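#lab-general

N.A. 3:47 PM
ok so I finally got the sequence cleaned up, no stray characters, all 250 residues accounted for. can someone with queue access submit it? mine expired

B.Y. 3:52 PM
send it over

N.A. 3:53 PM
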Amino acid sequence: MNTTGGQTHPHHVEVEVRAEPRQLPWLRDRLERWLRHITCPDDGVERALLALNEAITNSMVHGYRDGPPGPLRVVGQHRGDEVVLTVADKGSWKPARPGEGLGGRGVLMMQECVDRVYIEHTSDGTDVTLELDVAHGQASGRNKGEHRIAVRSSADEVIVRITGNVPADAAALLRRQLLGASCGGVVPLMLDLSALGPVVDGASLAIKEIADAVAGVGGKVVLVIPPESLAAAELGIFPGHELVDVVESL
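B.Y. 4:20 PM
back already:
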């Protein structure tokens, strides 16, 4: 896999990999474990992972786009009420080319997810620093959900099980969670909706947005909706949706 475990301390993690897209699922799992280890709140974990995904993907796509993939280092530090994440590469930064969706939306996505974003370009590479304020067990941000997600990932597929109700005001949170789990839509995504509750307004909005994002990189979302599930009737719109496939079981 060409990874180095780096160092992990209660308030510090450091990992280095080769800047290849296949490393994304491993990196995401590694960093999620650390964020949960330092008791970062759930909303903060998901937003940090999504911002990290964008920073890492931009390094992979742009930093080394004119040559072979080089090293990519990710450092996380927990400093009191703040989590600081740094993504560093040794590539040569260039502005995103027209039509390159991942690079074009990356910085905006990072700014949406965390409190502060700093980008430094030098002759030795690019450093992206993400700062997330965490205080009293809560991360900044207004969107809160009644739902929970469980993620199973491999190099070929991500399966996300959504449990509970997802009202409309939780749509943005669920969208961030699903984008993070699927590495921005790069990894094929299957959503297990068998345990979704009867309140699905937010889920409908988030799934449609995720389906659009995944379609933008040439993929399709698969929804698992058993006929007997609570959400089956409420999600009846999706069997006719051209950007998703619907199955009744895993």
